[in-house]
């Protein structure tokens, strides 16, 4: 597996990303570094240079209205504008205006006799397939757009949110049979070059015949593919991916997949919904703490039930002990077998509901849960107390925003259950130590998986277990190793009315 050596640390001066170019040629020289930016000479004696971002423009309009007009004869841009049958064509001298229009999906034509001005043609691409709402990462607040299977559409959804030329793309073809388009996206000047090179090299080193989805790449470029914990985030939300680009992460898009990969990542990010940033920071922090509590409850509730009822009756209050004894009086199975039966029943219902059509799956989940749970208690197979515990445990696992981590939480409960049966609370404790030791060893693109808890950085806790106000988040996460760590300049506090 390829791993880049850590580059020497150095101080980088803070430069604004919205750089103003002095000439149109300087702008072109910078934009052409991105693989999705097309620039070539055309027309008689190659007098014109046509430039545009391929994902942002409508190729049919370009071939129908633009290319025939510039293929006939050489004219000044003002006269050429009148021959193109597209409204709102503009000739600009200001480089800043040219930059903004090109990033919005305008085609640009320059004349080699007068390179100081450019003809801007609106060729903005209109989507044939409607962009739908997120299904897995649905949120009440915020944008309602989700990625689709077209990589050009996904690039459009990202670039329209980041209309700056510093967003760079490296395109790679992966798969000996499928020749799948894979693009590595990052913000030049923010993303760490080591992270970009690591991701790019790992993708180039893939030798596999079929790459049909981004989940294939996640399994192939992760630091530890044998771990059940996901080490890269897979998201269907353009707003989340845009925010992670701004933090200095590297983004990977795969043609044919509606999910986009981002990394490096940390464990705490899998329990942070992007909706947290759309609400007041105190409410968002409370919701995040509830999710973290739900994770511990989902993993530990059933094992603690088995351990206490098997070995540690003395820990149960007398009033509660009487209730537990009466609920298990007619149960022929030990607590471990009782818990495994209910856990497997919940997993079967969840898997069946996911594979069936939406309306049928919802019916199976609700009716099946009620019928099977009630029948199991009445038949004396399980106690009603454990049924409540297992149902709440399954419900708590649904609070995880990232689906891959939700699957991990579902699976990790079973080793805890077995250890609780063999060693009681000591077994639960030993299982927790093993999981913690595994997490301490995990990395994401070579970065610590438990950052900023390990290694501990107090200042970076502002957006982990809780989310502080935006005024306190003036720097990007240091664990991303951003080349430009300054996010915003501190504003002086004001007293009195504005």
UniProtKB/TrEMBL annotation:
<dbReference type="Pfam" id="PF03323">
    <property type="entry name" value="GerA"/>
</dbReference>
<keyword id="KW-0812">Transmembrane</keyword>
<feature type="transmembrane region" description="Helical">
    <location>
        <begin position="416"/>
        <end position="440"/>
    </location>
</feature>
<feature type="region of interest" description="Disordered">
    <location>
        <begin position="476"/>
        <end position="498"/>
    </location>
</feature>
<protein>
    <submittedName>
        <fullName>Spore germination protein</fullName>
    </submittedName>
</protein>
<keyword id="KW-0472">Membrane</keyword>
<keyword id="KW-1133">Transmembrane helix</keyword>
<feature type="transmembrane region" description="Helical">
    <location>
        <begin position="370"/>
        <end position="396"/>
    </location>
</feature>
<feature type="transmembrane region" description="Helical">
    <location>
        <begin position="289"/>
        <end position="311"/>
    </location>
</feature>
<dbReference type="InterPro" id="IPR004995">
    <property type="entry name" value="Spore_Ger"/>
</dbReference>
<comment type="similarity">
    <text>Belongs to the GerABKA family.</text>
</comment>
<dbReference type="InterPro" id="IPR050768">
    <property type="entry name" value="UPF0353/GerABKA_families"/>
</dbReference>
């Amino acid at each position: 597996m390829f791993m880049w050596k850590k580059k020497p640390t150095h101080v980088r001066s803070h430069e604004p990303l919205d750089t103003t170019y002095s000439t149109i040629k300087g702008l072109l020289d910078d934009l052409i570094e991105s693989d999705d930016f097309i620039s070539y000479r055309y027309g008689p004696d190659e007098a014109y240079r046509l430039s545009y971002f391929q994902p942002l423009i409508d190729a049919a309009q370009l071939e129908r209205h633009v290319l025939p007009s510039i293929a006939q004869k050489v004219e000044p841009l003002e006269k050429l504008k009148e021959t193109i049958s597209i409204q709102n064509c503009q000739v600009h001298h200001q480089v800043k205006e040219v930059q903004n229009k090109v990033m919005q999906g305008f085609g640009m034509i320059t004349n080699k006799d007068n390179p100081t001005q450019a003809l801007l043609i609106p060729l903005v691409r209109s989507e044939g397939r409607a962009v739908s709402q997120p299904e897995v990462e649905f949120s009440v607040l915020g944008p309602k757009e989700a990625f689709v299977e077209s990589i050009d559409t996904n690039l459009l959804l990202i670039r329209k949110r980041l209309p700056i030329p510093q967003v760079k793309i490296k395109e790679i073809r992966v798969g000996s049979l499928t020749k799948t388009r894979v693009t590595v996206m990052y913000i030049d000047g923010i993303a760490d070059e080591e992270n970009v090179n690591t991701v790019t090299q790992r993708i180039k080193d893939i030798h596999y015949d079929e790459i049909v989805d981004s989940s294939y790449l996640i399994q192939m470029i992760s630091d530890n593919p044998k771990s059940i914990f996901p080490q890269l985030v897979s998201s269907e939300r353009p707003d989340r991916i845009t925010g992670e680009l701004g933090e200095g992460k590297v983004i990977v898009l795969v043609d044919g997949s509606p999910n986009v990969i981002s990394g490096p990542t940390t464990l705490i990010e899998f329990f942070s919904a992007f909706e947290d940033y759309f609400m007041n920071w105190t409410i968002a922090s409370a919701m995040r703490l509830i999710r973290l509590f739900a994770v511990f409850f989902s993993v530990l509730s059933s094992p603690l039930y088995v351990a206490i009822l098997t070995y540690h009756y003395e820990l149960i209050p007398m009033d509660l002990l009487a209730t537990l004894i009466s609920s298990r009086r007619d149960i022929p199975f030990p607590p471990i077998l009782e818990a495994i039966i209910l856990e497997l029943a919940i997993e079967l219902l969840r898997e069946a509901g996911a594979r069936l059509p939406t309306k049928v799956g919802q019916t199976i989940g609700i009716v099946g849960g009620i019928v099977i749970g009630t029948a199991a208690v009445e038949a004396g197979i399980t106690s009603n107390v454990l049924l409540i515990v297992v149902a709440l445990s399954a419900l708590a696992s649904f609070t995880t925003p990232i689906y891959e981590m939700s699957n991990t939480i579902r699976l990790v409960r079973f080793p805890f259950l077995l250890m609780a049966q063999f060693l009681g609370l000591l077994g639960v404790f030993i299982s927790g130590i093993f999981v913690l030791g595994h997490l301490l060893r995990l990395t994401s693109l070579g970065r610590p998986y438990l950052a900023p808890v390990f290694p501990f950085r107090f200042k970076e806790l502002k957006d982990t277990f809780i989310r502080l106000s935006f005024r306190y988040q003036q720097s990007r996460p240091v664990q991303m190793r951003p080349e430009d760590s300054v996010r915003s300049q501190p504003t002086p506090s004001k007293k009195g009315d504005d």
